[in-house]
From TrEMBL:
Name by which UniProt lists this protein: FMN-linked oxidoreductase
InterPro entries: Aldolase_TIM, DUS-like_FMN-bd, tRNA-DUS-like, tRNA_hU_synthase_CS
Pfam families assigned: Dus
CDD domains: DUS_like_FMN (cd02801)
Biased composition (Low complexity): 350-359
Residue ranges of the region described as Disordered: 317-367, 391-410
Signal peptide: 1-17
Lineage: Eukaryota, Fungi, Fungi incertae sedis, Chytridiomycota, Chytridiomycota incertae sedis
Amino acid sequence: MVRVGTLPFRMVALASGADCCYGPEEIDRKVATWTRTLNSTLKTVDFVNPKSSAVDFRIHSIVEAPSKRNFVFQMGTSDPEWAVKAARVIQHDVSAIDINCGCPKHFSVSGGMGAALLEDPDRLVSILTALVQNFPHLAITCKIRLLPNIPSSIPLFLRLQSTGVRAITVHFRTRYDRPSTKAHWDMVSEILRVARVPVIVNGDIYGWESVQTVKRTLLESLRDERDDAVRKEMLDKINRLSFMPARGAISNPSIFRQIRAYLDASTRSRDIEFETAMLDVDTPRLPPLTPVVDLARLYVRLAAYFEHPGHPPVKYTLGQMVPPHAPRIGKGKPRSPSAGDKENYDSSDRTSAARSGSGSRLGPAWASFDNPVQVQEHEGVLREISGNDAATMTVTSPPPPAPAPATKAAPKETICGLMYPAKSMREVCAAFDDDEWYDRMVEGRQQGQGLHDGGIESAGELVERISQLGERGL
Ligand SMILES: Cc1cc2nc3c(=O)[nH]c(=O)nc-3n(C[C@H](O)[C@H](O)[C@H](O)COP(=O)(O)O)c2cc1C
């Protein structure tokens, strides 16, 4: 994801249970100019822009080594020759290259890239074929949207899979759908029936419950299937389906761990009845979500280490992750979250609001979902009026919500309130009370040392340690 999917966020996602992460889309003509350098302190492969001398792209050479197959480089292109030129630059540091054929933004489509490619399938096929032929050691994949005439997506899918791509991600919206339009999950079964390559479902995946609904829809679509061979094949495909959350993963990357556990628990057999029963897994046994503030703190540490100071995407990404009301963590006093905190900071409330379609989802993730604090306040008022306690109260027609102020500034003593005016990474770290950590880290780095965090020597080890932590992150 542009601005979000840089190395630090990918590390947080991997540490939170993601099997694989995509980098932000990079444009072929820019990639083709990059110079590859090895950064022995950070243990990264850096791709440097020759004009600005800035590091445009960074891959961790251990955590994201090609042999681990956990990183996909995503490219925007409209031309097979440029795509091949660009792929040559990064081919030894990645295991997969994905072509973005879904971006509806003006910048992409006006250059014939992104969703424009869906309307020029010959060109798209020539790009994918050129990459498949020139880079047999890489998995070439693509990410598409549904076509505006939804059924015509099937012939397009058939053409694309015949190019030799190793997987196709389908964002189950059309380019004209709004981000708030419900993803057309009814089309998953249509695509799956013709698929001969792995399919990755994208659009409205906000947690294990979304995965459950997609799988339920698929199993229901099989109920009237009389052909045993088709049923067997479809069950097999359903069990091998992959899922790509985007906004849900920004809201709380630990949904990956829950989804993985859910898939492991629910995928068992080739029998529809049994599979359907298995969808209702014993949910309390799923690993709990990590409070997103803890993951944001891990992100800010990794960002301070891996990004250059003041890198704009860091504040953008934190703004998406941290709820505006999350209070600053007491200076120098490590603080355990209370049960109330957990309710307030976990993305679960926000994501369930998103699933039910409430809230506009056009702004930052935290601003666009229902605010659980407001919900609690609202309940408190109702309690006072009715004299009931929350457990026995039934609200048949809740009063219309008060119009939200256009821009609600975060109070100064919240993480957001401190972070937004921050002008340096140190100040951003200070919003998380991590300024001392930042100073130690800079000192260690100046001495050519790896990431220092209580004896942790390298970012790879930090990520490994984080991935082993349970409910609480740091
Ligand atoms: C901040 C942000 C950046 C994104 N950047 C990319 C990108 O670089 N490449 C891409 O294919 N899609 C990108 N997308 C689109 C998502 O990958 C995804 O297709 C879309 O958000 C629908 O999934 P969701 O409903 O789970 O959010 C981006 C989305 C967001 C919110």
